[in-house]
Amino acid sequence: MPRHARGFDVQAAWDHLVRRDRRLGAWMHRIGPLPPEAGWRRRFDPVDALARAILYQQLSGKAAATIVGRVEAAIGSKRLHHDTLGRVDDATLRACGVSGNKTLALRDLAAREARGEIPDLRRMAWMDEDQIVQALVPVRGIGRWTVEMMLMFRLGRPDVLPVDDLGVRKGAQIVDGLELPPTPRQLAGRGQAWGPYRTYASLYLWRIADGAGTDPAAPRTNRSQD
């Protein structure tokens, strides 16, 4: 199995998508080229990232950052791993503002790391996307969407399409002039034309859903169902 680099050639992705999909390509031209994600170049620790993803779930960024800061102070480290999280008991985590379910999720992540079940960055480089998903979704509190975001924004895998993401589905709705967002199954079929650069297509669909590229000549869709 080949080694996977972090990130991909966005110019090659652009050329492929505008050639393969005229409707998406028209929106891409309105928005302009998207640069490589900054996260592809930053240091990345999978276990720490998963722990932080658990702590950030269902909270505003400010509230979650406050709780993360308390946890870091309690464990005496900015590295959230089985050895550092093991320095505090559950009561201390709860006192930091970590919910009971998130405490259980952190303990499960730590236990799996200690057993060698969480691949590190070096191992992930030799794993395909499905293998990484299968390795991480058994962790309590970690779903497929969380892993897909890691694959796209941190590992820079080029061919990830998060079909359950409402923003991506809404973007596809606008591109195709649909009255309703496509179902995940429909989006998966629609996205076959975007491979092997479905990640780059998704980045555009998010921006389209957020209103990027809209002008008087842009295609309209019935948003009454939003």
UniProtKB/TrEMBL annotation:
UniProt xrefs under Gene3D superfamilies: 1.10.1670.40, Hypothetical protein, domain 2
Biological processes annotated in GO: base-excision repair, AP site formation; DNA alkylation repair
Documented EC number(s): 3.2.2.21
Reaction(s) this enzyme catalyzes, per UniProt: Hydrolysis of alkylated DNA, releasing 3-methyladenine, 3-methylguanine, 7-methylguanine and 7-methyladenine
Keyword Ligase recorded: no
Keyword tags: DNA damage, DNA repair
One GO location term (cellular component): protein-DNA complex
Superkingdom as given in the UniProt entry: Bacteria
A single MF term (Gene Ontology): DNA-7-methylguanine glycosylase activity
Domain HhH-GPD: 55-210
Listed InterPro entries: Alkylbase_DNA_Glycosylase/TA (IPR051912), DNA_glycosylase (IPR011257), HhH-GPD_domain (IPR003265)
PANTHER family, alphabetized: DNA-3-METHYLADENINE GLYCOSYLASE (PTHR43003:SF5)
Protein name: DNA-3-methyladenine glycosylase II
Taxonomic lineage of the native organism: Bacteria, Pseudomonadati, Pseudomonadota, Gammaproteobacteria, Lysobacterales
